[in-house]
Amino acid sequence: MHATLGLALGVALAACSGERVAECDAMLAVAQRASACGRIDAAQRMQVDQSVRTIKDALDRLEDVGPGQAPADLADEMKRTCAKQEAEIRRLYEKVAPECLQ
Q: How does pLDDT run across 27-60, given as a tens digit for each residue?
């Protein structure tokens, strides 16, 4: 899972849009809930938590960059990637710990 979240991070860093991306913020929120959930194995929570910190730092840096820096197609790809990663996190934990995703 760390690798899939890392992919989203790489796309986010490449886009540098300077604006918050709702899809990435939503993915981050789900990942944060998973990393804080005691029903998920401690080793997995640590891995998710590390990814959450990395993604949060990247999104915070994106917010500091001036708007309009990224081509529209790259920004769209970032949105799609974040949405896909959120769905993947939900898929991974919806059966073992659905309460962690609410």
A: 888 988 888 888 888 888 888 888 777 777 776 7
- For the entire predicted model, the pTM comes to 0.69
Q: What's the domain range around 17?
A: 2-101
Are the beta carbons of 21 and 67 closer than 8 angstroms? no
Q: Which long-range contacts (CB under 8 A, 24 or more apart) does 69-78 make?
A: 69/16, 69/17, 69/18, 70/14, 70/15, 70/16, 70/17, 70/18, 74/11, 74/14, 74/15, 75/15, 75/17, 75/21, 77/11, 77/15, 78/11, 78/12, 78/14, 78/15, 78/17, 78/21, 78/23, 78/24
Domains in the chain: how many in total?
Answer: 1
Count of alpha carbons within 13 angstroms of residue 92, beta-carbon side? 20
Q: How confident is the model at residue 84 (pLDDT cuts 50, 70, 90)?
A: confident
